Amino acid sequence: MPKSAKHLLIGSTEAYSGKSAAVLGIAQQLKQQGLQIAYAKPLGTCFSDTEADSVDEDVRFMAQILDLPTSALRPSLFFLNAKTIYQRLQGHDQTNYAQRLIEYCQAQGEDLMLLEGPGSLEEGHLFGLSLPQVAEIVDAPILLIARLRSPLVIDSLLSAKERLGDRLMGVLINDIPPTEYDAATEVIQPFLESRQIPVLGLLPSNQLLRSVSVGELVHQLKAEVLCRRDRLDLMVEQLTIGAMNVNSALKYFRKAN
Q1: What is the mean pLDDT of the chain?
Q2: In what order do the strands lie in the sheet with 199-204?
Q3: What is the CA radius of gyration of the chain?
Q4: What pTM was estimated for this model as a whole?
């Protein structure tokens, strides 16, 4: 039987916390050190435009950016959506996903497999693939990503520590507002580490990293480009959407400038 690869599971306390960006940074560092890595996202959540295309958009993105060979990429076991959930609830899907995950994570020559977890600690539990369940199945340490929306993030991290125990190797606090950065370093980090929760990184907010290209907006909205198709690579840092008359709209657009 092929040996299991070493794994690092990257999870989050809520969706859109920056897991993919963290995976990308870690992968680049490991590649520079000469390590052979693989990337996998067992639970697909980023759907493509056509049902026939079963590749998660995050997997496609990692393949392009990291220039990984096909053998170092694993397509998602399935997509988490209303269709698959109802199939499970109605008993039409009796798949043992724990066993499939073991086979899915077999080594193919890489030194380390980076596993991108679901959007929260609970997501995927119906299929036996929640973050704690995946960590247990593949015996992986967990790097947890959390956005600093408010100091209430402490509650979610303390709760995560209770649930994950020693599997929680540390947390990365992301998207810290400039006004909160001192508090994060001087208060939040020392408190968490006093509770045996290592803080492995503190990342300030970056508007560019939260931006989207004009081309991506066109793609997602299936929009028609009226002019300047040569500028689709420009980044959009702020969106203002509304239905109102010109006079009412002016004060909102002025605030956005």
Answers
A1: 85
A2: 73-74, 37-40, 112-116, 6-12, 142-147, 168-176, 199-204
A3: 20
A4: 0.79
